[in-house]
Amino acid sequence: MTSLLLRLAGPLQSWGESARFARRTTERAPTKSGVLGMLAAASGRRRTDPLEDLLTLRFGVRVDQPGRIERDFQTSVGADGSRFPLTDRYYLTDAVFLAAIEGDHELVTGLDEALRAPAFPLYLGRRSCPPEGRVSLGVRDEGLWESLSAEPWLAATWWKRRNGSTVQLDAHLDVHPDDGAPHTRTTHRDVPLSFDPERREYGWREVSHVHVPVVNDTPAPDRVARPRHDPMAALGGA
Hints:
The chain is an alpha+beta fold. The chain is about 15% helix and about 35% strand. A hairpin with a 6-residue loop joins β10 (about 185-195) and β11.
């Protein structure tokens, strides 16, 4: 199989799986519906276009830098002056993810080309969350797990320095019939059957939660004892 690797990083990200009405929450990691929506936008698909080929893709994500959740309190007014309900919107900040999709070689390479020259703007879950830098890291002639395991750690230098020489990163992958040892599994309703605004529809998928060991190429600097600073020393006598 062939895999396409994506770097998902930016000032803000928001991956809502069950966000509704006035409380717009975010998951701690990118959702399959959000990433497939990005790929559809890059390919120039409209919201009413079919998604059958994208639904054949297996999806996985590695949490390289977990970030933190921030709440944004918003008000809005319509063009006619009508006021909309007050909303709480949640975002991830300082987060970096390595996402991967696995599938047919021709489909995957075509999506890679689309990401490098997207037909529509790309965003990380919501329109207010543009990606930072290049999204596509290229195609790998490996499966999903192998690709997520082999890629170097994508976290920022300041985050790497807070960790040891080897770290265990959380990863979430579509369950595969050939998966071996049992892992923690959960079900999520984030498979986009239709993005049509008049009939949005999502299906269920089973997700396996595992740990991926990676080498830290930027270990914490050696701690050097610093001389004690006495701000009053200059006022003392000889």
